[in-house]
Amino acid sequence: MTRPLRSLGFLTIGLFDRENPRAGHETTLSIIERGESLGFDSAWLRDRHLQYGISSPVAVLAAASQRTSRIRLGTAVIPLGWENPLRLAEDLATVDVLSGGRLEPGFSVGPPRRLDEIAPALYPDTAEHEEFGYERLGRLRRFLAGEQVSPFAGTEGIEEYSERIEPHAAGLSDRLWYGAGSPASTTWAAENGFHLLTSSVIQSTTTTDFDTEQDAQIRLYRETHPDGENARVSQGLVVVPTDTATPDQRRRYEAYADSRRGRVGIPQGPRGLLFAEDLVGTSEQIAEQLHATRAFGQVDEVAFALPFALEPDDYVQILEDIAGRLGPLLGWTPGG
């Protein structure tokens, strides 16, 4: 039985030009504002370091929190290998307070990409001693929950000190997501009470069929999580409705999907990663494709990913079609 879609969100990488970075960041903020006006329940930012995508999603979401009032603001995902958990906890708590409790941060663990090259800049003295596994994320959650980080609390001269990170954002530690792609990471997320972000990339374990693997992942997660069938899962896929697109937009969208289609069904890299096929077509066609998959039938939250490198007008058209046409076909209503 397919669950009706309860929460409709979108995900963007926030690309910008090297010589004019402000314009791209402003576009991202405008997209989030537009998403809220269209009734979307959530907006999610990717995280890119040393690239031309958002490197500081927490800072961008701080700005977004002041331009919106209702839409939930998420990260999918922050790679913790780049972060100091205590400092990140302070930043996250600050944004959550500013947003009125709308922050939903998602994370991944593991060493940063190309660590050997960036270690002299990122961890010049401690790289070989850094712990990049789940303990780092556990520490972050404990800090957000209010765990003591200093044995001293009180007044020293005219300065007043707290034993925990400040500000404290009540409830934030219960709104944390984990981006899992393997059975092991999925099991860990479930056992430790994190919500599950499942995306358009997943590890091949028994088949080369993406839907089969994602369906098994979601079932494993809910079988393991204490909340069972009520455990939250958000599915992220590239979905591009063309209902109101111009002929030129349709051509470019289809070319984008064609350029990525060759990797579908073929395990990539040493981990055997599988990629979902991008869905481009009318809302009716996309809804039919989604309803035909097993994984979509198990989720009631989605964060549809906006394709990379499109124009601002393209994103507006895609969001309008998702909210106005595709969403209702999937059982969603604004604010439902």
Model description:
The structure is a single chain. By secondary structure, the chain is of the alpha/beta class. It has one domain: TIM Barrel. About 40% of the residues lie in helices and about 15% in strands. It has ten helices and 14 strands. The chain has helices at about 20-35, 55-65, 85-100, 115-120, 135-145, 185-190, 210-225, 245-260, 285-290, 310-330, and strands at about 5-10, 40-45, 70-80, 105-110, 155, 160, 175-180, 195-200, 200-205, 235, 240, 275, 280, 300-305. The protein has an eight-stranded parallel beta barrel, surrounded by six helices. Strands 5-6 form a two-stranded antiparallel sheet. Helix 9 packs across helix 10 (about 310-330). It is globular. It starts with 6 loop residues before the first strand and ends in a 7-residue tail after the last helix.
Outline the fold blueprint.
Blueprint: E1 7-12, H1 21-37, E2 42-45, H2 57-65, E3 72-79, H3 85-99, E4 103-108, H4 115-122, H5 134-145, E5 154-156, E6 159-161, E7 177-179, H6 183-191, E8 195-198, E9 201-203, H7 210-224, E10 233-235, E11 239-241, H8 247-261, E12 273-275, E13 279-281, H9 283-291, E14 301-305, H10 312-329
Parallel strand pairs: 1-2, 1-14, 2-3, 3-4, 4-7, 7-8, 8-10, 10-14, 11-13
Antiparallel strand pairs: 5-6, 9-12
Helix pairs in contact: 1-2, 1-10, 2-3, 3-5, 6-7, 9-10
